[in-house]
């Protein structure tokens, strides 16, 4: 294989990689509009063709002869990207524009850094870098490698979504960086302005580094602020939950005291009727007593008061939404910290209630149980649903529009179960969504050999 053939292959692969790098970022930050990959592959092919045409015109000197044509081609690439992103993704328009804008700027930064490093460090003329050949190929591969590293770092943690528009104080920083990059687009498409002027090129490379540094600093500030706010919100929720549990415990105690008083009174009346040999009246009165006793059957009375209150709260919430709630609790000792078991139970039932509530007919149903096992216990929950949940690579994906809450309850369940050496599984059929959790008694290794059925 000749050097020229190798250059063609490397450039082909390099130009083809950029659209797929873009697609990777878009898929992680935005919501796809279509399930089929066909449209997204066509977008990548179209982007590749535009890049290929631009590079051919650059190598043949056509773009170098016309400043307007070079700028126009960049505008076409930007317009194509914005239109395709708008058509293929269903997120809010502001996030589409933000994501496409940052990707364009990221590509430009990667190109400038690769050219700047090659020119300043290796003393290669700018004209040589811009011409077809081995140097241009190395610069292209280096540029796409930088772009991949930048996007990989940005997308490594999918669950971390930074809402830039939520924090208006950093918007001026963002737009000042964007405005700074605008002249770079023009100069990049007209490298003759730089020629071999090392000072000019140095300032442009320094500008790109400054842009990246300020953006990283901005993201760092936002991430710390987001974490602080999240911790504060979680603390407030915990306090509210504790207050609600205390309030519910007080109501339960009062309800049981009232029932105890009523039962004593009823027994006295029943004894009087029996002494008077009014057996029919006694039978009628005894049947009426069952209505009061039914109240006690609606109250969970476990040794673990916190779990009892959680179950009582969730049952009341389900009943208030006309959801049939069937439950069976077969154990008293849960073997793990209260905060863990309460978090698992609460999130399972919250998801079940939310799903069953969406069912339009009278088929709103939840069946919840905790059953003992020789080496642990099972937590099972089946609920009806309206929209079939999505599983991607074995992971449940929430259908909620709010990406910040994307499968959040499922993540908490998985994490809590894992922390206690257990296993959680999720599945659904045409009628029910099912959750099965197994928690082993400490120092048992039942899960090491395989899944518990």
From TrEMBL:
Residue ranges crossing the lipid bilayer per the database entry: 6-27, 39-62, 68-89, 101-122, 134-155, 167-188, 200-222
Keyword field contains Isomerase: no
InterPro entries: HATPase_C_sf (IPR036890), NatK-like_C (IPR032834), Sig_transdc_His_kin_SpoOB (IPR016120)
Organism whose genome encodes this protein: Anaeromicropila populeti
GO MF annotation: an example: phosphorelay sensor kinase activity
Name of the protein in question: GHKL domain-containing protein
PANTHER family the UniProt entry points to: TWO-COMPONENT SENSOR HISTIDINE KINASE
Keyword terms: Coiled coil, Kinase, Membrane, Phosphoprotein, Transferase, Transmembrane, Transmembrane helix
Limits of the Sensor histidine kinase NatK-like C-terminal domain: 340-440
Organism phylogeny: Bacteria, Bacillati, Bacillota, Clostridia, Lachnospirales
Coiled coil regions, renumbered to chain: 222-249
């Amino acid at each position: 294989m000749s050097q020229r053939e190798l250059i063609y292959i490397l450039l082909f692969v390099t130009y083809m990689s950029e659209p797929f790098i873009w697609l990777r970022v878009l898929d992680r930050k935005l919501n796809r509009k279509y399930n089929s990959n066909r449209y997204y592959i066509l977008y990548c092919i179209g982007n590749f063709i535009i890049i290929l045409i631009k590079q051919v015109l650059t190598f043949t000197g056509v773009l170098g002869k016309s400043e307007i044509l070079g700028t126009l081609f960049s505008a076409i690439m930007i317009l194509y990207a914005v239109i395709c992103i708008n058509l293929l993704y269903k997120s809010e328009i502001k996030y589409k524009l933000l994501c496409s804008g940052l990707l364009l700027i990221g590509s430009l930064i990667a190109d400038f850094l690769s050219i700047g490093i090659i020119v300043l460090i290796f003393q290669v003329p700018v004209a040589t870098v811009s011409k077809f050949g081995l140097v241009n190929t190395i610069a292209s591969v280096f540029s796409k490698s930088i772009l991949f590293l930048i996007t990989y770092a940005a997308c490594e943690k999918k669950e971390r979504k930074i809402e830039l528009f939520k924090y208006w104080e950093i918007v001026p920083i963002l737009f000042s960086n964007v405005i700074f990059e605008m002249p770079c687009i023009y100069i990049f498409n007209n490298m003759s302005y730089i020629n071999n002027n090392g000072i000019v090129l140095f300032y442009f490379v320094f500008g790109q580094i400054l842009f990246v540094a300020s953006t990283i600093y901005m993201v760092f500030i936002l991430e710390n602020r987001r974490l602080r706010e999240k911790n504060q919100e979680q603390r407030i929720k915990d306090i509210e939950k504790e207050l609600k549990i205390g309030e519910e415990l007080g109501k339960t105690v009062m309800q049981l005291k009232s029932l105890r008083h009523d039962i004593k009174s009823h027994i006295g009346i029943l004894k009087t009727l029996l002494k008077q040999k009014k057996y029919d009246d006694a039978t009628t009165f005894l049947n009426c007593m069952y209505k009061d006793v039914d109240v006690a059957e609606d109250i969970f009375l476990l040794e673990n008061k916190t779990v009892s209150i959680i179950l009582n709260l969730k049952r009341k919430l389900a009943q208030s939404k006309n959801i049939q709630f069937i439950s069976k609790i077969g154990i008293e000792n849960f073997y793990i910290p209260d905060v863990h078991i309460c978090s698992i139970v609460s999130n399972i039932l919250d998801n079940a209630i939310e799903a069953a509530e969406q069912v339009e007919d009278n088929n709103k149903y939840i069946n919840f149980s905790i059953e003992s096992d020789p080496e642990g216990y099972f937590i099972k929950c089946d609920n009806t649903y309206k929209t079939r949940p999505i599983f991607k690579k074995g992971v449940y994906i929430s259908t909620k529009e709010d990406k910040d809450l994307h499968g959040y309850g499922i993540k908490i369940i998985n994490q809590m179960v894992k922390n206690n050496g257990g296993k959680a599984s999720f599945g659904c059929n045409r009628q029910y969504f099912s959750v099965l959790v197994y928690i082993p008694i400490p120092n048992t290794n039942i899960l090491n050999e395989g899944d518990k059925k």
